[in-house]
Amino acid sequence: MLPIVVISGTGLYTPPCTITNQELVESYNRYVADFNLMRAADIASGSLEPLQESSVEFIEKASGIKQRHVVDKAGVLDPKRMAPSIPERTNDELSLMAEMAVAAARQALDNAGCSPEEIDAVICAASNMQRPYPAISIEIQKALGIGGYAFDMNVACSSATFGIEQAANAIKAGTARRVLVINPEICSGHLDWRDRDCHFIFGDVCTALVLERADLARRPGFEVLGTKLATQFSNNIRNNFGFLNRGDEAGIGKRDKLFVQEGRKVFKEVCPMVAEHIAGHLQGIDKNPESVSRFWLHQANLNMNQLIARKLLGRDPEPAEAPVILDQFANTSSAGSIIAFHLHRADLTAGEVGVICSFGAGYSVGSVIVRKR
Ligand code: CO8
């Protein structure tokens, strides 16, 4: 018989700086005024469209986001820079991603009541890696004094749930007893803060989870009843940054080397896909959406989450059924659904069932059905 796998601990590292929508819009609109002044002649001749201002009202209505945490506020808000300032560290120092990961991991280990030496594997699952190698996960492994093995993986916003499945499979297969899954997301580094359509979307954060064999766990935790992953190619969310970019100098610095999306199409296509995915997953283990106490959904857009929950339940969800954290954190890519799980699970009682679900670029969807022990 395969061992039962539990999520026994979680951790959250939140960068200390926050940017409110008001601060973001003020900085963006200063950039717009400077740009339009500098290019006034082109705008007057009709060869260039003036840039349009952003607005707090639009951001809150279209997304539900009120603020975001970032690793560097000054660089992002400087209208002449509009990118975080992250000085490169020496090879002997911990990278920024690993530093955030170690802080979140220590919390998760503490929450699970286990020590780093008891972990057999580290999976760093995130949308962007600070470098290709040595793997960020191996750096984290070394910093925490963990044995076994470690690897990095990326499925954009779905990285955490895809990582959870890899961890659960390793535990079931007996290749690891306890696995740390960590999601350091520095989205501010890959966001075009000069693009009005998306400058408000992302924030930085790091989450961590401990998964282990139920018979070894010191905390009741949440039993993993099942995981289900799906991908379907789409060009609607894209990032063409990569190691081959220098092979074509003409492309370096082009807009598509940062996050780009067709937000409306994503909204329209992904919501039904996610609702069907979750319903199908639940049905596969003889459950239905009404039997689920909590949906910890990916946190990209408030309207999106409400629509998905409505499709599943046939009614508007109660706030506690599908907790929202994106108002405070914005879209933190793979970490979003895990932040919701971290902050909104303590009140569930033994036997209650919940679904962690992520979705995003790929397209990708990952769901994890759990039961409180
Ligand atoms: N202020 C004022 N007006 C604006 C602004 C602004 N900031 N931005 C756009 N407008 C205008 C537009 O120009 C448009 O004007 P018009 O009607 O005259 O053309 C109007 O407002 C409406 O614009 P949209 O149609 O774009 O607005 P939407 O209502 O569709 O809202 C959203 C935009 C919020 C982006 C919405 O479409 C959305 O949330 N879609 C889903 C997005 C999503 O979930 N994406 C997932 C991405 S994340 C992921 O998968 C992994 C990424 C990895 C991380 C990368 C790190 C950076």
Automatic annotation (TrEMBL):
<keyword id="KW-0808">Transferase</keyword>
<protein>
    <submittedName>
        <fullName>Beta-ketoacyl-ACP synthase III</fullName>
    </submittedName>
</protein>
<dbReference type="InterPro" id="IPR013747">
    <property type="entry name" value="ACP_syn_III_C"/>
</dbReference>
<feature type="domain" description="Beta-ketoacyl-[acyl-carrier-protein] synthase III C-terminal">
    <location>
        <begin position="288"/>
        <end position="371"/>
    </location>
</feature>
<dbReference type="InterPro" id="IPR013751">
    <property type="entry name" value="ACP_syn_III_N"/>
</dbReference>
<keyword id="KW-0012">Acyltransferase</keyword>
<feature type="domain" description="Beta-ketoacyl-[acyl-carrier-protein] synthase III N-terminal">
    <location>
        <begin position="151"/>
        <end position="231"/>
    </location>
</feature>
<dbReference type="Pfam" id="PF08541">
    <property type="entry name" value="ACP_syn_III_C"/>
</dbReference>
<dbReference type="InterPro" id="IPR016039">
    <property type="entry name" value="Thiolase-like"/>
</dbReference>
<dbReference type="Pfam" id="PF08545">
    <property type="entry name" value="ACP_syn_III"/>
</dbReference>
